Amino acid sequence: MEDYADSDDDYYYDDDDENNNGDDDDGDDSLNGIQDVDDHIHLSLVNRKSSLQVITRESLAVAQREDLRRIMDLLSLKEHHARTLLIHYRWDVERVLAVLVERGKDQLYVEAGVRVMELSKPCSSFSSLTCGICMEDALPNEVTTMDCGHSFCNCCWTEHFVVRINEGQSRRIKCMAYKCNAICDDGKIRTLLRVRDTAVAEKFDRFLLESYIEDNKRVKWCPSVPHCGNAIRAEEDDFLEVECACGHQFCFGCCGETHSPCSCLMWELWVKKCQDESETVNWITSHTKACPKCHKPVEKNGGCNLVVCVCGQPFCWLCGGATGKQHTWDSIADHSCGRFKEDDLKKAERAKKEWWRYIHYHNRFKAHTDSYKLEDKLKETIQEKILKLEDRETISKDMSWVTNALYRLFRSRRVLSYSYPFAYYMFGNELFRNEMSKKDQEIKRNLFEDQQQQLEANVEKLSMCLEEPFHEFTDHGKVMESRMKIITMTSIVDSLCRSMYECIENDLLGPLHTTHIIAPYKSKGLEKASELCDLRMHSCEKYSSSIGKIFLNN
């Protein structure tokens, strides 16, 4: 019999390693500035159909049942068989259809652990059955048979289910028979558990329901704190920035804060870099040295430069190199670091250069982050200006040119902020050391910095335009002049943002062998998820179209 400690994770199908967890707690105030702004100003645009759906706790069962119904109707399966298939293929309906066409129904079922054959000998034909686990005789009504044909007593089945559920493996509980990979019927599991412990049965049902989110790469929990209880389902693209119905904005790829044009990997490295350069780490770096054996920080509490770590390794405080345990007035045994070495000088120069390079990008990142927080106060000022302008009968009541400009300022300021961490890794040696020559790197850096500089200059101009007291102008012509200037600057900034993204995608990241995908730039802002019921018809139409394409192509 299979060991209880085995994991069912090996039976999941996965094209690539997906990481659904994000870390929003970056530990540095400079990283939290942009995310701290709770309110968002949106463009006054007509509503457009969204490819994002909000799944609430109430609609979670409905969303899961939609996908189950598709597979049940297509393959004429029972609900628990359809659920087994979808959990194995990470709730990817299109992938299930593709495997069906490429490998056939039998192989599809075998890989997922689905058994749909009918039993030739029902248990009721036996007066008693000896359980293969406890070796006790059981009456027919005390025996349960799974779809694979294996029968055991209800007590052993129940104990098996309870152990698996408590180990967190409730989504794919396999048969107890030796080398049987069939997945047990969740209906029979539920029936047996309710007799034994209703709390465990409820836990089992909850895990099955939440598997639609936990195992589905198209669905992510909203990472808002406190948690709003919503999940977001993306129909088309994994690399995008979304806004939940609760108002929280996040990256769908890593569930962290929005960070485009940085890729998820770049942002993860940048957050860690900023944490490593915090005051605590700076103190540790200044007052301690790492043990050459266990790498723990060691503080020197005496005048002798021979120090011993708690692990027992002696080393030289001057250079950090491991030494012998003997120490005399003349030398430290097995070690000499008094001679000047050119390599040490080169290493120190490289470290100093890299440090100043980080300071350059971090200072500009923080400057735009701080500007974003300060410009957030403009919202109240702009509202006051709009009210005063609307009170004048001679002025048009349409003030969208002001609100649109304010939104564009916020959006472009975010882009500028995150463009500096992007540049730090794009033109450094950490990620793309072997993918660009020094000459190519310099050409691409100059190209990007030209785009960045133009955007930065025009963002500052737009900020100054919005700070002008145009609501106090008594001359109607002067107000219209200010209006046209703001509209023009708004359009220019939007165009420059789009151009910089095209440069990043086509000229910088496109030619590289390493894949780094960034969330695309959208002039109309982050896509806001719609309620599930609003998109149900659209989802069904897309599903019907995908089935037709798969079978027509084959």
Summarize, please.
By secondary structure, the protein is α+β, with helices and mostly antiparallel strands. The chain has helices at residues 29-32, 60-75, 79-88, 93-103, 105-112, 154-166, 186-196, 198-214, 264-276, 279-287, 342-375, 378-390, 400-426, 438-467, 476-509, 536-552; strands at 52-55, 129-130, 137-138, 143-145, 151-153, 219-221, 231-234, 241-243, 249-251, 288-290, 297-299, 306-308, 314-316, 527-528, 530-531.
Could you explain the architecture of this structure?
The protein is of the alpha+beta class and 554 residues long. The protein has 16 helices and 15 strands. It has helices spanning 29-32, 60-75, 79-88, 93-103, 105-112, 154-166, 186-196, 198-214, 264-276, 279-287, 342-375, 378-390, 400-426, 438-467, 476-509, 536-552; strands at 52-55, 129-130, 137-138, 143-145, 151-153, 219-221, 231-234, 241-243, 249-251, 288-290, 297-299, 306-308, 314-316, 527-528, 530-531. The strands form 6 sheets. Strands 6-7-1-15 form a 4-stranded mixed beta sheet. The longest helix has 34 residues, at 342-375. The radius of gyration is 31 Å and the shape is flat. Pathway: Protein modification; protein ubiquitination. Keywords: Metal-binding, Repeat, Transferase, Ubl conjugation pathway, Zinc, Zinc-finger. Its EC number is 2.3.2.31.
